[in-house]
């Protein structure tokens, strides 16, 4: 019995199509998580919080965003600690004026003589030591809460489970324009779609954004940043990767707990963030399984596209038009379901969907990763480290 040459490739393609459709269903997990977190909660006693913000030469960002943090409608006591990395602009004057206006604002300045210690890690450590409360919220100077109830929802997530020791919140990039801005918004949304269900089930792989609630005792129990004190960036990413588990980590996905991060130079943010994350990732001790899952998603996109193109070529060359119609129909069904599920996930995250550019953007993820990896390999390792004074 002679089997047509196209049957075996079509059978393999059908198997690949089933895997791709199952992958598309994973996009639906994010709206489900968001819906669960948006459900009304019974009022309960909330723990006091200490908010830590590290800044350097960010006077205008602090002027716009810091009052929104200080004026949070939070039923329990909270303080805001701004760790200034020896700014030479008007940041010290602004902080002095705000201290006169807000009694819950405290300012610390990091010493310039620190040797072989990352300024950011040193600033966070000093702020942790000066914090008055057990629960600490880490964020950035260029972030502002999406609502006056940001701290309330973060604190509610802290007390949902008695074993919780860290809470990961959402951050959304703003002030992005053009093609580069579209790529930044897509990549952050796609990473959150990949990251959030995994963090809920296995523990967080890293911190996406600048919205983290963390127990102060856990920080000092693991000696803070002692293991990677000289790395310039990635402080919170490594800390989350080292200490997060499914048991001690919770997510805060309520829309009113969202932080808006202002990115004015998208090209610089894009290149530097991805380059430095490649170095940060090298120091991750856990979650190899997450990286395997990430690579599987990226490769599946390319394998499915290439196999579709190859099978269309074979069917056309051998004039198997019925089989060709089936392949086109399967591809269209996959593209429609993928767009539908991804759109639902983006809308749940409060971001604009990418229905037209989505196929191109998904295929560019692999290129962006390879590009960042090559740049990382060609960069002097000392670029990522604090140089001795």
Summed up:
The protein is an alpha/beta fold. It is built from 13 helices and ten strands.
Structure, explained:
This protein has 389 residues and is of the alpha/beta class. The protein has two domains: 7-28 and 290-378; 40-280, Spore Coat Polysaccharide Biosynthesis Protein SpsA, Chain A (Alpha-Beta Complex). It is built from 13 helices and ten strands. It has helices at 7-25, 29-37, 59-70, 91-101, 119-130, 150-158, 178-202, 216-221, 235-243, 266-281, 288-317, 321-348, 358-378, and strands at 49-55, 78-84, 105-109, 135-140, 143-145, 166-169, 171-174, 212-215, 249-252, 259-262. Strands 3-2-1-4-8-6-9 form a seven-stranded mixed β-sheet, with helices on both faces. Helix 3 links the parallel strand 1 and strand 2 (78-84). Helix 1 packs parallel to helix 12, helix 3 packs parallel to helix 4 and helix 11 (288-317) packs across helix 13 (358-378).
